[in-house]
Amino acid sequence: MLDVHLAHGSQDPPTLFIFGDSAVDVGTNNFLSSKAKANFAYNGIDFYHSTPNGRFTNGFNLADQIARKFGHKQSPPPFLALEKNESSFKNNILQGVNFAWGGGGLESLVKQGEAISLGKQVEQFTWVSGNISEILGPAKAATFISMAVLIFSVGSNDLFEFARNDSGAIGFGKDRYLKLLRFEYSSHIEKIYELGARRFGVLGVAAIGCCPDMRSGNGGEVCDPTQ
After folding, report:
1. To the nearest 5 percent, what fractions of the chain are helix, strand and coil?
2. Quick count: other Cβ atoms within 10 Å of Cβ 179?
3. Is ATP-binding tagged as a keyword (predicted)?
4. What pLDDT band is residue 206 in, cutting at 50, 70 and 90?
5. What CA–CA distance (Å, rounded) separates 63 from 80?
6. Considering the entire predicted model, what is its pTM?
7. What is the 3-state secondary structure (H, E, C) of 140-190?
8. What is the rounded distance in angstroms from the CA atom of residue 64 to the CA atom of residue 44?
9. 25-55 per-position pLDDT tens digit
10. What single DSSP character describes residue 115?
11. From the CA atom positions of the chain, what is the Rg in Å?
């Protein structure tokens, strides 16, 4: 659980940069020819205008809830949406960016069409960071990045893919696979740290055995205790 406290009357909410998968995707999937889509009913039914918007939920998703805790109205927009508006891109990225994609994972074994793994999201952030440096100048940009909050919610797709394939398609056992994921995760965090980020929020991975696909093997009512 992420516990956020803001002092009454304090400065503006911190800029947010969000990375991850479907738990925090706010529309990246709308711009990709991928199976990981949320552009159909009843996604978005309780959101503004009651229309699908790319969130894998009926209303606000986890990214929105975290952003609201920090004092924002909702999550910052998807990187791919901002990228398409070149004239306003540099101004908009100063308000925060959401890089998450519904099918995103820690490494390249998770693929659905045009995959945007965490590594790709970090590449996008690197480009955004460079643009911020051009806008503000190196010194102010360094302060800006260091004061931003970076949220990570990723890993479920990697574990789900492993569990669903019973490790056969991946080619090695659980312990080695988990070691690989830890290495991937730490490498990406270190890369972003090198870019000047200092404030991180890392969300844990939910029990894979409780997702609908895994529950279906137990009659759909209870979680699979083996996962």
Report:
1. 45, 5, 50
2. 12
3. no
4. confident
5. 16
6. 0.89
7. HHHHHHHHCEEEEECCHHHHHHHHHHCCCCCCCCHHHHHHHHHHHHHHHHH
8. 13
9. 999 999 998 888 999 999 999 999 999 999 9
10. -
11. 18
